[in-house]
Amino acid sequence: NRQIKLASRPNGVPTSDNFELTTSDIPTPNDNQMLLRTVYMSLDPYMRGRMSASKSYADPLEIGDVMLGGTVAQVVESNIDKFAVGDLVVSNSGWQDYSVSDGEGVLKLDKNMSNPSYGLGVLGMPGFTGYMGLTDIGKPKKGETLVVAAATGPVGATVGQVGNHLGLRTVGVAGGAEKCAYAVEELGFDICIDHKADDFAEQLKNACPDGIDIYYENVGGKVLDGVLPLLNAHARIPVCGLVSQYNATDLPDGKDRLGMLMGHILSQRLTIKGFIIFEEYGDHFPEFLKIMGEWVESGKVKTKEHIVDGLAQAPQAFFDMLEGKNFGKTVVKVADV
Ligand code: NDP
């Protein structure tokens, strides 16, 4: 049983020294457990936070722990009535070949699902995050302008496409021309701007002639700087993630802009609300799955995956994702079904 463990805590950008690949025996399930074999593994930005010692909404990993994460796995042995050998499930098995589970928090996938890995992306945690953050906190109204960065990733792509269906003007932000072209041509964003462009703020302003009503916050940093002056009165900001800051070891250089931010909150009467998807909205997951399942099936919502082959490739794929070298939902294929 290959396992990738946290070997040391990163200081800034994570490196391969922070991970260790070890091998152990395949675990044996007890009378109330099942044995799962990992097929696909999800890589998500939040994992960077768990590698650090600081406590966030969840406890950090300890040194020597198997890296955590969502997985699609196959049941290979089962002592639980609800799960049969051969079933495909979404579990939290982490970065390893085999794990045992008591079935808690494990979701059985439809046998006929053509792409089980979607259970880690558009039909899983990231898709659910985009859907709930936009609809519940964003409070979208037809004709309003929405801005979302990491627009081709699983969260941003969902936000943009749901926004389109709700009649919003959708402005995506992504890294590079190829991602921006995909956002417009495939995902249907009205426009997409490259955050690496020198005149990013100017381009964003031109893309939002009526200001911004919803800024779905995925990245922070330069994108937030560009957005702030464009926010309309009563704009809403679902604070979903701040990926540009996840490797930061200190506050950014430059003038303290906290006062300016508070000024915008006051003068524009902004609603800014952070959320952690399953903590706030767990009960809504079945209803989300039904709606999004139909939309994906009918082609109303499209998705792109960035599939990397082999468990051992996970650390590099994880670094790449944090740097934006992924194009679509990052998934590691660990084994064949
Ligand atoms: P992605 O697969 O989109 O990967 C992250 C992307 O962030 C990169 O591909 C890159 O896209 C972009 N990025 C990285 N650095 C920067 C930067 N400096 N400036 C601008 N963009 C940058 O991620 P997800 O869709 O899985 O997640 C998106 C966000 O949602 C993350 O912040 C994540 O932490 C958050 N999240 C929050 C949850 C919650 O419960 N609150 C649950 C799930 C996700 P590009 O090349 O286009 O810039």
Task: Note the main attributes of this structure.
globular; 337 residues; 15 strands; 10 helices; Rossmann fold; binds NADPH dihydro-nicotinamide-adenine-dinucleotide phosphate; Quinone Oxidoreductase, Chain A, domain 1
Report on this structure.
The protein has 337 residues and is an alpha/beta fold. It folds into two domains: 2-121 and 304-333, Alpha-Beta Complex (Quinone Oxidoreductase, Chain A, domain 1), CATH 3.90.180; 125-278, NAD(P)-binding Rossmann-like Domain (Rossmann fold). It contains ten helices and 15 strands. It has helices at residues 46-51, 125-137, 154-165, 177-185, 200-207, 221-227, 258-267, 277-281, 285-298, 314-322, and strands at 2-6, 19-23, 34-42, 71-78, 88-91, 98-101, 107-108, 145-149, 169-174, 191-194, 212-216, 231-239, 271-274, 305-309, 329-333. Helix 2 (125-137) crosses helix 3 (154-165) and helix 2 (125-137) packs across helix 9. The chain starts with a strand and ends with a strand. The mean pLDDT is 96. NADPH dihydro-nicotinamide-adenine-dinucleotide phosphate binds at residues 44-46, 125-126, 129, 149-150, 152-156, 174-175, 179, 195, 218-219, 221, 223, 240-241, 243-244, 275-277, 321, 324, 326, 330. GO terms for molecular function: oxidoreductase activity, acting on the CH-CH group of donors, NAD or NADP as acceptor. Residues 1-28 are annotated as: Disordered.
